[in-house]
Sequence to fold (117 residues):
Amino acid sequence: ANSKQKGIRLEKEVTKNNAAINGSNCTVVNEKVGICVASDTHWPRRGGGGKKYVSPSGLTYMIGSLSGMIVASHVCSQDCRKGNLEPGETVRPHRCPRNFPKSKSPKTMETASTVIM
Fold:
């Protein structure tokens, strides 16, 4: 199992144990335990003293609230080195990292990534 799967498993266990200690029930739907998470996004480049979000990429982590373990992550990218060609050049087949429109603000990557996860 990868580290995210371990994080999810640990968060579920901690959630169940926390409910048992507090004499309450945890949310279970179709045998899936509901967990509480928080998310945050990192932008490799910022402008304007850290107040403007100008980076063409962002990495969002979802972290289990009780375990502190990473349970999910998502990368958004507005750029692709191989896809940024001069007019007339052809793109070779490649695994393109571009998955976020350039027309949207990099700040919106945080919300989009959280919804995707």
In short: The first helix runs from residue 3 to 21. The beta strands are 28-29, 32-33, 37-42, 57-64, 70-77.
